[in-house]
Amino acid sequence: MGVVKEGCFPLFPFFTLHVILSLSIPLLPLSVHSKCAKNPIIFNFGDSNSDTGGYVDGLGLDFVPPNGRTYFHQPAGRLSDGRLMIDFLCESLNTSYLTPYLNSLGPNFTNGANFAIIGSATLPRYVPFSLHVQVSQFLRFRSHSPALMSNGYKDLVGDGDFENALYTIDIGQNDLAASFDSLSYSQVIDRIPSFITEIKYAIWSIYQKGGKNFWVHNTGPLGCLPQKLASFARDGSELDEHGCLVPLNNAAKAFNAQLGDLCKQLNSQLINATIVYVDIYSIKYDLIANASNYGFTSPLMACCGYGGPPYNYNANITCGRTGYTVCHEGSKFISWDGVHYTEAANAIFASNILSSNYSTPSVNFNFFCNKI
Ligand SMILES: *[C@@H]1O[C@H](CO)[C@@H](O)[C@H](O)[C@H]1NC(C)=O
Ligand SMILES: *[C@@H]1O[C@H](CO)[C@@H](O)[C@H](O)[C@H]1NC(C)=O
Ligand SMILES: *[C@@H]1O[C@H](CO)[C@@H](O)[C@H](O)[C@H]1NC(C)=O
Ligand SMILES: *[C@@H]1O[C@H](CO)[C@@H](O)[C@H](O)[C@H]1NC(C)=O
Ligand SMILES: *[C@@H]1O[C@H](CO)[C@@H](O)[C@H](O)[C@H]1NC(C)=O
Ligand SMILES: *[C@@H]1O[C@H](CO)[C@@H](O)[C@H](O)[C@H]1NC(C)=O
């Protein structure tokens, strides 16, 4: 694990590289190695956008093929055909993929832990595995680690390393999605501040235990997901020029505006902390809007699903369920299963994240490394 292997990738339109390789082979994404003096440590919180196996560890199951087919060649606890953005971000730091906190079979937490769980939301607060529960799990992990280490347990994070770690958060999509299932647009908008308050609480809680480095992803264009389009795009009146649902995307933008304000506010309130706000929405929407420039064909159609164009999504026959169909070339699809992205899309999202062009303040993903 760690370094991107050649041959796994389609042609890459761009990637910020320290080294440009090759004359005859296509341009491949290379890991941009950080200058971390020590093992970089990451604690991640979120939903399926960054769950690297917590859900399947917790439930004692795994997903069925074709999940994982492109990179891991078997289901790997991720809802994708391959790696997620967080996996590529770990590769950029030359560190192992994050071990789920719920992994009880020889876990290795040397480089941090992943608390993200598929389906998670900020609210309701006290259900598994809301952001609040994930943060509680982290606080427990943190408070129990020193005693375990002094008893000889290895593969944990040392006391001082919690302060230098990076805390990444990617949550909110399920709050918005669940709200739209039962509420009107204006009721959804009214609920957004309560979601933002949970994220604020999470950052404060970690900061109070010494965390200083935060990397906060905003939420993607919900209204471009094939799943949402298949259930809400009835007459086309609510679609924008790229075929996405305007109300859902406007709610995502409203959430993001408030999240951006929160990050700005916390940057001035939390002494010595850096809270980086990353505009994932723009990264994802740009790829959907400009899909053909990147070599993708049907940006609003799931690779794995049922029903064919325009969305290839049927709630009764989702990816892996009896009757599904799967595209031949996942590298030409942005959506994997109607909700989650393909490895090819995730790789491009990650390369844009790593460019720092979408970060406020404009710092590199490895900004916390030089503090180690
Ligand atoms: C990346 O990790 C590998 C193995 O973990 C190590 O051999 C290599 O030196 C590392 N590279 C950098 C640039 O840190
Ligand atoms: C745990 O992971 C670290 C790097 O992430 C590695 O150096 C170490 O060897 C691993 N431990 C085990 C027991 O595999
Ligand atoms: C901020 O960092 C400086 C320099 O490391 C330190 O002296 C100071 O105590 C820190 N302040 C807080 C509130 O953590
Ligand atoms: C599509 O790409 C063009 C050219 O790079 C860019 O100007 C435009 O903003 C992109 N569209 C979206 C929606 O991001
Ligand atoms: C899914 O199955 C239910 C119950 O059989 C049916 O009412 C519904 O129309 C089906 N949905 C789709 C999208 O086919
Ligand atoms: C980031 O912005 C710079 C300067 O505008 C541009 O040259 C570069 O191509 C951008 N990188 C990405 C990945 O968008």
UniProtKB/TrEMBL annotation:
Gene Ontology molecular-function annotations: hydrolase activity, acting on ester bonds
Keywords: Glycoprotein, Hydrolase, Membrane, Signal, Transmembrane, Transmembrane helix
TM region positions: 12-32
Family, as annotated: Belongs to the 'GDSL' lipolytic enzyme family.
Protein name in the entry: GDSL esterase/lipase LIP-4
Organism: Hibiscus syriacus (Rose of Sharon)
